[in-house]
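Quick one, probably user error.
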């Protein structure tokens, strides 16, 4: 009888462990996909056909990101204005757009 009880307990522990792992994977998949959708939204905004204004702002975007927003170059300002003019409803911050410019 002790063996049957021990096997039943072991089986329940295995099932509980699998349920917890499955729940964790589901949660991380959900978080990961929502972050990917967020990044994709800002990426779509700055690709704009890889236009020249945005591509020329890469060095200024790097300085902006590295200085945590303290250094704002002329080319970055032009790119940000250009992106916002192309997509008036864009809700991305300057930092998000600068990071996205760097990612291209």
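Nope, works fine. Designed sequence:
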């Amino acid at each position: 009888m002790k063996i049957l009880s021990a096997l039943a307990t072991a089986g329940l522990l295995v099932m509980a462990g699998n349920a917890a792992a499955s729940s964790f994977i589901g949660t991380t998949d959900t978080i990961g996909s929502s972050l990917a959708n967020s990044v994709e939204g800002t990426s779509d905004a700055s690709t704009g056909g890889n236009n020249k204004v945005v591509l020329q702002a890469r060095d200024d975007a790097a300085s902006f990101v590295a200085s945590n927003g303290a250094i704002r170059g002329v080319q970055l300002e032009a790119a940000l204005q250009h992106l916002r003019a192309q997509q008036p409803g864009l809700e991305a911050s300057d930092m998000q757009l600068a990071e996205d410019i760097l990612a291209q």
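The chain has a mean pLDDT of 76.
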